[in-house]
Amino acid sequence: MTVDRLELYRRDFLSLQFVVPDPRQAGAYFFGGDASIGRFVDGGPITGIAGVDGNWGSADGIGSKASFTCPTDALLHSTRSDQLIVVDCNSHTLRMIDLPSRAVSTIAGGGRAVMAFPRKAVWSDQPNVLFVTTQNGLCRFDIVSGVLSSVELSELLKPGFGLMRVARSGVSALVITTHQPPNRVCAIWPETGRVERLAGDNPQSVTGSNGDALSVASFGEAAGVWVDQVREIVFVVDQGTHSLRCLTAPSHIFSAS
């Protein structure tokens, strides 16, 4: 990506919140500003889809008539590639954008008591079911029935922040980070409630970056996670220490057993 394009982002968007690939086209990406959603193709144009940065809110509507408040993630519908689901963190909602018409609607949430500060979402291995991290842990949302429910998990995982599903060999594990002391990276199996800590239980985790071993590693603020499923490595965005951390994950989280 060119310097000119990076400068264009700096001019046009108050705060770039996320960038995720558009799997429909190589080199294409969706992104979120502080109150907007857009799309760009590497080396090509930047297109606004919905919302306007600086116009915070939770209004549904078409294109710039809709509003968002700190959207933090987006992913295409599991069966309808013309529908984009947006995690609208500070509106405590999930939003749906019909990409051809740019019409925005609210599909879940609507208040802190319902879905407090959702951050990241991934599809489960069941059709039309999303897992969403929130300030209070993990939610399951059935996009067809509209049923939103809490996933009962250990206090080890509250509050949830980063989230990624391990989608190899049909395995149903998720990798999740927590962002308040003690910061942790854990593997979880939501259908059974099984939780396994991978790293980050050191008492100094609020400020530390110590150690590579499981028993001594610590994080400043484990804000995001990405799993390299080929090399079996977990990358952690550590905001507290301004660094990208990586750990070699145990092989069994990548197997279906």
Please characterize this protein's 3D structure.
- With 257 residues, the chain is mainly β.
- The protein has two domains: 112 residues, TolB, C-terminal domain (Neuraminidase, 6 Propeller); 139 residues, TolB, C-terminal domain (Neuraminidase, 6 Propeller).
- The chain contains one helix and 20 strands.
- The strands form five sheets. The chain has a five-stranded antiparallel sheet, with no helix packed on it. A four-stranded antiparallel sheet has the order 1-2-3-4, with no helix packed on it.
Brief sketch in words of this structure:
This protein is mostly beta strands and 257 residues long. It has one helix and 20 strands.
Protein traits:
2 domains, 42% strand, 20 strands, 257 residues, Neuraminidase, mainly beta, disordered N terminus
